[in-house]
Amino acid sequence: MDVEYDMIVLGTGLKECILSGLLSVDRLKVLHMDRNDYYGGDSTSLNLNQLWRRFKGDATPPANIGASRDYNVDMVPKFMMANGALVRVLIHTGVTKYLSFKAVDGSYVFNKGKIHKVPSTDMEALKSPLMGLFEKRRAGKFFLYVQDYKENDPSTHKGLDLNIMTSKELISKYGLDDNTIDFIGHAVALYKEDSYLSEPAIETVKRMKLYAESVARFQGSSPYIYPLYGLGELPQGFARLSAVYGGTYMLNKPDCKVEFDGEGKVCGVTSEGETAKCKKVVCDPSYLPGKVKKVGKVFRAIAIMSHPIPNTADSHSVQIIIPQKQLGRKSDMYVFCCSYSHNVASKGKFIAFVSAQAESENPEAELKPGIDLLGPVDELFIDTYDRYEPANDPSSDNCFISTSYDATTHFESTVMDVLSLYTKITGKTIDLSVDLSAASAAEDDF
User: Fold this and answer.
1) Is the keyword Ligase in the record (predicted)?
2) Pick from 112, 173, 326, 445: most CB atoms within 10 A?
3) Domain membership of residue 175 as a residue range
4) What total of structural domains would you count in the chain?
């Protein structure tokens, strides 16, 4: 291979494919390689036969579950905020034309042993059984303040400087109790644990506004959308974008070895005896194990069911967040459900996932509170994987490594990692401030 590339991207996980697409749009010469013969890497979607091979070896799926081709089971199940960063990247790049989306039916939170709809506006707060009458009034006033708040309009700040005031101080001004703080912080602002309470309140308000704007975008009952045929469609969409702008793809390339020069900087990638030269490498942690550190483990249960999750208003697609305090944990637990209505399972079948950052060595016991919410299941699989983050200095070796996917069932943290890597690679930031309500051409794809 005599060509020298600006960038070689290793792995076809969603993060790597988004970066490949963005860098190709910037007219960089990109070669994208993967040791696998399919797109998606760790974030792929599996049909029924592939799912059985992965978790049960040579066993054959039972006939009553349906045809293998009807299934697209995500290995990293996540919904997209309808007004969030990933949707903005999709519109910014035009990848929406390769995909179709459908609104998610429900957004719920687990509180005091019961599943409740997440209120996202002052009116929903007034109706919520999560709170008593007086608490509803206090919460309603707080939601109203958040809805009216505009960062560039001091008249909406009511004399409060949210860049200095902590989230705890802001919430305390409205006298909200611990239960209300729990669902606001974890199920609306989507924090994974409680450290946000001691940080500036501006980020919490921005996250709450994003949630409400995402709910309002499709006048639905949740802020989330999800692609038809599963998340495996997303990496392929960005791969097409890269190809349109001249990116080259090579799948099924074994033993991709990153090569370094005498100064320790990347200079190419070797596979099957051939070396492709490059100036920089982007990859997932598995391609450079010596330059990453383990930061935890994710436990996940995958269930095939013949019914929706009980107590979710028969929702065909739903997220339930179980805040850490409800289970005495250090981090939240997440329940995700989709179904045949999103073309990811046979008619009448539902796929549910329970995900958590591991806090023990026993996944079955740790995930049990979430699994118990599912009701009867036809089949259950337990998955575990280690999480890694980069430990290198990209400015010294030109290796840009993504962080492993976390346990959350939404994409906000995933896209923040991608945008951070893009800025480190190019020195630029992507303007995602597009007015989505004005993006009428893209609306047809949702």
Assistant:
1) no
2) 326
3) 118-217
4) 3
